[in-house]
Specification:
alpha/beta, TIM Barrel, about 40% helix, about 15% strand, binds phosphoenolpyruvate, binds cobalt (II) ion
Length: about 450
C-alpha cells in the first residue's frame, strides 16, 4: 500500500484555502448532497486508473502519446447519444491518424463524463446593468443570466454524477461493443468532413488501414481480437469542486489505496495550482494520474514545489504538466522548466494545451482562437523539446465532433463573420471535427521524427 504524506486525509484540504468554490446559499443542503454522493457507486474502477497511469508512464518515456480532448465545459442539455458519439468518433479518428502516420500508440483521454465545473476570473458579472453570480458550469448553476438561474444549487452536483454515469456507460458500450473496431475506421469519417481536404486525407489513410486488416485476415492472422475490435477510452476533468471530488474518493478494496473515482485522470487548473492551496493538498493524497496546468507566470521553483508535493516518489505516469503558455511565451518559459527538470531526473508527461493562452475577442465580439496560433504553439512545443532533448508527451485540446464555428482558420478558413453561425459553446471556443483532424495530421508528422 502506498501512503500519501502522513497528515493527508480525504478532508485535510479543508485546512487550506480553496479558491474557486461556489458561494452555496445553503450549506446544509450541500452536506446532504455530498453525503448522498458518497454512498453512490464510484464512476470508474481503480484498476482502470492504474492502466491509464501505466500508459502515461510510457508517454513520459516517448513510447506513447497522450491525446486529451473535449469540451471546455460539458452541458447537461448536450449529454445526448449523437453528441457523445461524435466526440468519440473524432477522437478515434485523430488517434488512428497519429498512430498510423505517427507510429506511436495514442492514449485516448476525454475531457468528458464530468467536465461540468468551471473556474472564473470573477465571482460576479454585470449583465444588462444587473450584477449576477458568474456561471460556474452546469454542476453549479445555469448559464442563463437571471438571478434564479445563476444561484448555485447543490442538487446539480447529483445531476452531474448521473450525467457522467450515463456518458461513461455509452462510451464503454461504444468502445467495447464494436463501434471502435478498426475495420470501421472509414465509417468514423463524418458527412460534413468527408468532402473537406482533411476528410479526403483521412479517407485515404482509412483505406490503407482497411486493406492491411483485410490482408491480415486473408493470410489467416486472426482479426477477431480485442486489439482490433475494441479500444480503451479514459475520462478526465478539472478537479475543481473539492466536496464533489471528496465524495467520490474511495479506498480501492484490492490494494487499500485511495483513488478519486470520479474519473480516471483529474487535473488542477491554472487558477488553483497554489502549492499551499486546497486543490494541491487534496490531489496529493489520491493515487490517480493527475495533471497540473502551467501558465506563463509559473517558474521553476513553483514547478519543483508542485512535483515535491504531488509526486515525491517520482513515479512515472503520476504527473502530467499541461503547459498553456501562448505562442509568444512558450519558448522563454518552457526552456528553463525542461532544462532543470531534466537535470533533476523528474518523470513528467509534458503535454501541450495550445488553447488557453491564445484566446482573444474577435471584432464580432466572440471569444475565439486562431487555428494558426494553435498550430504555432504546438510546433514550438515540439521544437523546444527537441532542442532540450526532452519528450513531448501529449496534447490537450478543447474540441468537439460537431461542425461548430468557434475557432478561426483551418483548411476551410473560418472567418470572423462566420463565427456567429454555429457558435454553440457556453465557455471557451473549440476546434470543430475538421480542425481537430488537421491538428492530428500535423502532430503525426512531428511525433514520427
Ligand atoms: C480549461 O481547461 O478549461 C481551463 C480553465 O484551463 P486553465 O486552467 O488552463 O485556464
Ligand atoms: Co477552457
Amino acid at each position: 500500500m502506498k501512503t500519501p504524506h502522513t497528515e493527508w486525509t480525504k478532508t485535510s484540504w479543508k485546512n487550506y484555502p480553496a479558491l474557486q468554490q461556489p458561494n452555496w446559499p445553503n450549506p446544509k443542503e450541500v452536506d446532504k448532497v455530498l453525503n448522498d454522493l458518497s454512498l453512490l457507486p464510484p464512476l470508474v474502477f481503480a484498476g482502470e486508473i492504474r492502466d491509464l497511469k501505466a500508459m502515461l508512464a510510457k508517454a513520459s518515456r516517448g513510447e506513447a502519446f497522450l491525446l486529451q480532448g473535449g469540451d471546455c465545459s460539458e452541458n447537461f442539455s448536450e449529454v445526448t447519444a449523437p453528441n457523445i458519439r461524435e466526440t468519440l468518433k473524432v477522437m478515434l479518428q485523430m488517434a488512428v491518424v497519429m498512430t498510423y502516420a505517427g507510429g506511436k500508440p495514442v492514449i485516448k483521454l476525454g475531457r468528458i463524463a464530468g467536465q461540468f465545473a468551471k473556474p472564473r476570473s470573477s465571482d460576479t458579472e454585470i449583465v444588462n446593468g444587473v450584477e449576477l453570480p458568474s456561471y460556474r458550469g452546469d454542476m453549479v448553476n445555469k448559464s442563463e443570466p437571471t438571478k434564479k438561474g445563476r444561484t448555485p444549487n447543490p442538487k446539480y452536483m447529483l445531476k452531474g454524477y448521473y450525467m457522467s454515469a450515463a456518458t461513461l456507460n455509452l462510451l464503454r458500450a461504444f468502445t467495447r461493443g464494436g463501434f471502435a473496431a478498426l475495420h470501421r475506421v472509414q465509417a468514423w469519417n463524418q458527412e460534413f468532413v468527408i468532402k473537406s481536404p482533411m476528410g479526403r486525407s483521412y479517407d485515404r489513410l482509412a483505406k490503407q488501414i482497411d486493406q492491411a486488416i483485410k490482408f491480415m485476415n486473408t493470410i489467416g492472422i486472426p482479426i477477431d481480437i480485442p486489439q482490433v475490435n475494441q479500444t480503451q477510452f479514459f475520462t478526465s476533468h478539472e478537479a475543481l469542486l473539492l466536496g464533489y471530488e471528496q465524495a467520490l474518493t474511495r479506498v480501492d478494496s484490492t490494494t487499500g489505496d485511495w483513488y478519486d473515482c470520479s474519473a480516471h485522470m483529474v487535473w488542477i487548473g491554472e487558477r488553483t495550482r497554489q502549492v499551499d492551496g486546497a486543490h494541491v493538498e487534496f490531489l496529493s493524497g489520491v493515487l490517480n494520474p493527475i495533471g497540473v496546468k502551467i501558465g506563463p507566470d509559473c517558474n521553476i521553483e513553483d514547478v519543483k514545489k508542485l512535483i515535491q508535493k504531488l509526486n515525491p516518489e517520482n513515479e512515472a505516469g503520476r504527473l502530467t504538466l499541461i503547459t498553456r503558455l501562448g505562442t509568444r511565451n512558450i519558448e522563454k518559459v518552457l526552456t528553463p522548466l525542461l532544462r532543470e527538470t531534466k537535470k533533476e531526473g523528474f518523470n513528467i508527461v509534458w503535454s501541450c494545451d495550445p488553447m488557453h493562452a491564445n484566446t482573444y475577442t474577435a471584432d464580432s465580439g466572440h471569444k475565439t482562437r486562431d487555428f494558426n496560433d494553435i498550430l504555432e504553439e504546438i510546433t514550438r512545443f515540439f521544437e523546444v523539446h527537441w532542442a532540450e532533448g526532452t519528450i513531448p508527451g501529449g496534447i490537450h485540446l478543447e474540441m468537439t465532433g460537431k461542425n461548430v464555428t468557434e475557432c478561426l482558420g483551418g483548411a476551410r478558413n473560418i472567418v470572423d463573420e462566420e463565427l456567429h453561425s454555429r457558435y454553440d459553446t457556453t465557455c471557451d471556443p473549440r476546434l470543430n471535427a475538421e480542425q481537430s483532424l488537421e491538428v492530428a495530421f500535423q502532430i503525426a508528422e512531428m511525433i514520427k521524427k
